[in-house]
Amino acid sequence: MPLFSAKLLAIFSLISHESCYLWKPGLMWLHLVSDAVIALSYFSIPITLIYILRKLVNVPFNRIFLLFAAFIIFCGTEHLIDIWTFWHPDYWISGYIRALTAVVSLITAITLTSLIPQILALPTPHKLEEEMQNNKQKEEFLRSIYEGVTEAIFVIDTTKKDEFVYESINPVTEQVMGITSEQIEGKTPEEVLSNDFALSVKERYSQCLLAGESITYEECFKLTENGEDSWWLTSLKPLFNELGEIYRIIGTSVNITERKQAEAQLRESEERWELALLGTGDGIFDWNITTSQAFFSTQYKEMLGFSDSEVENSYQGWRNLVHPEDVDLAEATWKAYLNHENPQYRAEFRLLCKDGSYKWILARGMAQWNQNGKAIRMVGSHQDISQRKAAQAEIVRLNQQLEARVTRRTAQLEESNRRKDELIESEQSAKAEIKIYEDIVENIQIGLCIWQMDNIDDITSFRLNNINPAASQMLGVDIQSYINQPIEECFPNLLDAEHIGIVEAYAEVVKFKQAKDLGEFSYGDERVPTSWFKVTAFPLPDNLMGVAFNNVGERKRMENALAESERLYRNVVNSVKEVVFQINKTGIWTFLSAAWNDITGFSVENNLLEQFTNFIYADEEKIKARELFESVISGEAEFFQYEFRILTQNENFRWLEMYAQIEHNSNNEKTGVYGTLNDVTERKQTEAVLEARADELIQINLILLQTTAELEKRNKELDQFAYVTSHDLKAPLRAIANLSEWIEEDLQAALTPDTQRQMDLLRGRVYRMEALINGLLQYSRVGRIKTEPETVVVAQLLAEIIDSIAPPQDFTIEIVGEMPTLVTERIPLQQVFSNLISNAVKHHNRSDGKVTISIQELEEFYEFTIVDDGKGIASQYHDKIFVIFQTLESRDKRENTGIGLAIVKRIIEESGGTITLESQLGKGTSFRFTWLKQRM
Fold first, then answer.
1. Helix axes 753-781, 900-910, angle to 10 degrees
2. Which of 467, 687, 893, 919 is the most exposed place for a label (fewest CB within 10 A)?
3. What domains, with CATH codes, occur in the chain?
């Protein structure tokens, strides 16, 4: 510190340049002006360098530029210090500035020396121009591919926030959208598309930005002049810059309208086929839900490899065949249908085959319901859909493989995007353009082969130059290893007689520089699986040719399946006796099966496109049929059924029964009705015969009613006669009885015992005569006088009868078992029980006897048994006792009319029952009779 201070003070002992006596004014100003100009120049140079560095971000070696700027600043500072020391002798400060300048100069020299190899590696203007020319050729090559493919390709600029700008479109996109590239490039979707379409595509572009990866989707829109729907499979792929930001989106669209139309036609064909074969299919089942028993057709079991006896015909037998992973879903599906949660039963599951494998089955069925809405039976079909499931699995696998390839290619592209671009701004733009075309070629959803024709006069001189990943995928074989190989090595069968024309067309494309659409053709060899391809060839520079192709094998298979489905549908429909028809919304036949000709004699071809009501004979039937048709078309009814007459070609009348229901297309739009026409002429003729028979029955019934009325009149007259007769007969008898009692009272003192006995005998005969008259009256009324059925509690009825009979105190009447409750006529049943029980008590030989009443329930009857332990009845009298007026004992010994059992037998037989007797002398008597459970 003291040394530094001493040096600093020493400055003041020095003299300045101005004080030097040798300096002349001219020399002095020469130095001053020169130093000032040099200093200003030095300071302007680093300012200019810094400005250039700020404008050119990618300038290499920016560190050496900064060191060079510092070196120049220090040099300029030295010249300013020289001007200062001209008047002020501050030489130590000047020395320090020079020392710093020396340090910076040394660092700059060392750094510049180390950068010599890199500086020498910079391209010369000639080399830079040559590289730019190569890039231009490559750009033209990729642009030829970009403009020559048959798929729509577009590039979107995403650098502006929340805005998508169309940067470029290829000619196919121009043709599809009906707009030129000049009209769309630099514009947003809102400026060139309709509002709805613009919103839709912007949503897709935003999804791609948010996902940060490729997305693929199907879209439908109207681009054609006739307004028909056009289906496209579109893929969007984002491109990233060095900062990992998305700056472009590349889109490719493939027209899949034909495939969609084929799918729609196939679906409609399947729906028509299912309609004609409702409830049938490859395998048939019939399941009794109540008993769990089931019927499986032979074809059902053979589908799984089983014989007819190897599958249990029950619900459990079916359940044992269902794959364990599918059981719960399969059961839940049919339960939901039976619980009315789903309108139809349709399920897919796997069934076990005899060889241990599983087949995918499509199950469909319909249930039969009872009056309570409960399912009691289900009938349906099982269809083998294993091939369809395998195809779906293969599609999933191919999609996954495609996604893996896209991911791999995307990773490669991202790695390539991270490399620094060392060329000038124009070169960067060219490389970016080339990069876009390369991405398009790599990620386009079509196969692309580039061929080099070495000898333009030799069609066999084609050599495979390049191929994109989609080509290998569509060919079904990896073809990358055959690059630079001749055409006969890559695709040997292209040179055979069948395909040589294709190679000749390739040569014409190269010679005449004109693209060709080669259409569709089939190709296959030992490596490439045989399939159908749609091919377009287009010229490229330097005798190169591009071939863009799509594998249309799946579409061809769908077309064949559609044709086969149509053939099967027509065979089935033509084999049905009923006429299967379709009518459009205006009432015109659009389809009639062959049965129309069999029933009416008219030609199907001649009757199509005619109003269906033209064939209905009666005008009122035409009007009614039209009203029913309009009700279904308007949605008021789901179906209609109607019978009408037609006049056949042979001028014979036929009755037809029409059943029709509404028909919808794949978009759920009403297209008309479909259904069947059934010839019911024979049924109508039978109904006419039955109506005639019914008229005859009505006449017979009138006769029967007249006869019945006559019989009722006779019965009333008979009842009146019986009543008058019984009244006229019983009146004298009552007078005799009263007279005998009066005589007894008058002659009480004079009556002898014998006279008293005779008087009692007289009144007994009177009472017997009166009982006989009452019995005859009851017997005559059996079966003629009807009463309304009522609820009869038999136990209560028996108690009332026993109470009215009043058996002796020691006499026992036992009721065994629970007596039923009947709905029947009360009085006849009461008469039967009363007669049988009173006879058992009255004719018993002991006062302490026993009567047992029991019951046995039969299918339609109750069987009542009345057993006593009395003296019994000899076998020779078993039939006699049911005859009127027949008694087993003298009437003088025991009062009896002999009518009671005859009345009992007649009542029981009139009621539809029977009565039997079992008895032996000394062993009691048993009467059994049956009584209907419920009177009809």
1. 10
2. 893
3. 2-121 (no CATH), 144-256 (3.30.450.20), 277-384 (3.30.450.20), 576-679 (3.30.450.20), 700-757 (no CATH), 787-932 (3.30.565.10)
